Model the fold of this input.
Amino acid sequence: MINTTIFEFCDHCSFVPFCLPGERNLSWATQINHAVKQFRSLKRNEILCLPNNKFQNLYAIQHGVIKTYQTEADGNELIRGFYFAGEILGYEAIYTNRYPFSAAALSETVICEIPYANFLELLQAKPLLQKRILYLMSRQLNMGSYLVSTTAEQRIAAFLLDLAMRLHPMEEIIEFVLPITRQDMGRYLRLTAETVSRAFSRLQKMKVIAINHRKIEFLCLDKLRQIAEGVG
Amino acid sequence: MINTTIFEFCDHCSFVPFCLPGERNLSWATQINHAVKQFRSLKRNEILCLPNNKFQNLYAIQHGVIKTYQTEADGNELIRGFYFAGEILGYEAIYTNRYPFSAAALSETVICEIPYANFLELLQAKPLLQKRILYLMSRQLNMGSYLVSTTAEQRIAAFLLDLAMRLHPMEEIIEFVLPITRQDMGRYLRLTAETVSRAFSRLQKMKVIAINHRKIEFLCLDKLRQIAEGVG
DNA sequence: CGCTGGATTGAGGCCGATCAACTTCAGTGG
DNA sequence: CCACTGAAGTTGATCGGCCTCAATCCAGCG
Done:
């Protein structure tokens, strides 16, 4: 019962080799239950953590989307990252010992709470898993490297490609539903919602994508990649 | 002899607890010499690694400055980070298994090469050091978080504060020599050298800093911090 | 049905880029 | 000692991409 429930969601989680190394059975599942509080559920817009909250947990996203963000002095919201199913949030706080951002759910979201103390214990007990965690944190360092691109179109193209890959890590999809508003894309890419919308319209006119509200389709992946790379 | 030579430079290195946990003596120093190739020296503008080079080493900067950068399709150079004495370069490559950027010395620079395989071995042998490495990688995740700020002045102010702190981690200095050209600051902050120069002039006119070529002095730290935060 | 939040599109303004001229300074060699 | 050279920095004038503000459209939903 709990067995299937857990594994069903855990299949795509980057924390799996950490939670479930080797055989998958109920005894192991109950064992890790001491380290990982499974399945805390968040409603749309519900807040997961606030800046300066003491760092205690990493969070593995089971299902849904979380954004991390900080609010500037003028009230402007800057999004630092999005986290999708299978990704882990909170590495930044290891250094600061406090969450350096707010985190909120963009939709119905289910997470695993991973108390950092338990995380460290598990890591010590299973030294082979160290390598995996270094790999995951290194991945985090590479996140959003396209944010430095100069033009709006470039960043938006790169963001779309990033999104498609992270939403469907196994398959190469060309059609999906955007889980993020234009506004929030802009808050992440340092653009306004209007600029994002205009760029979408332009890309559509160029027949690189087809977009209708949240539904998007890549019509020419090569062209999209070129735009993301700043070619042409 | 080698003893003092090593320790003299290692005092401020964030890798120290990894290299030199506990007592400092020659036997330990020779021991780590197997894991860490000490003191490779780079001339100004000398290249340390190129994009798509196979990942093999982390690099600890002993002395000097390294920049990591990538070149866009149009030849424009984007700087991803600066690394100063005591800092470690290369975590990004753990995930990609190749360096995702070029790295070059901005001045005479001395580094330690740390082969990643040896790094992992050492980590397994000394599990207590795991925590330290997670801490350092988490720090890296927080690097340059001010790059998202909206205005040029804000990013520049934040950069100056960051620079002062990292160049002199122990003391709170208000006067130092910029180790980086305006051009490279711009390439990091996504601004042109002209914009950087103009911002400096404006900050000087506001009596927040005094600047003359590479020599800079903070005249009003509070104001500088406020500007960095976007207040006022 | 109207309401509400998200998305699109247009008009005008501003910040930073671009292009260009000039200055300063370090290094070199006569 | 000074002339020459080239890189770095400063300052000004103009241009363009993105922001701002505003109107409209559209889908979802009570």
About this structure: The two ends of chain A are 54 Å apart (CA to CA). The domain at 145-228 of chain A is CATH 1.10.10.10 (Arc Repressor Mutant, subunit A). Residues 181-183, 193-194, 196-198, 200-201, 213-214 of chain A lie near DNA strand C (CB under 10 Å from a C1').
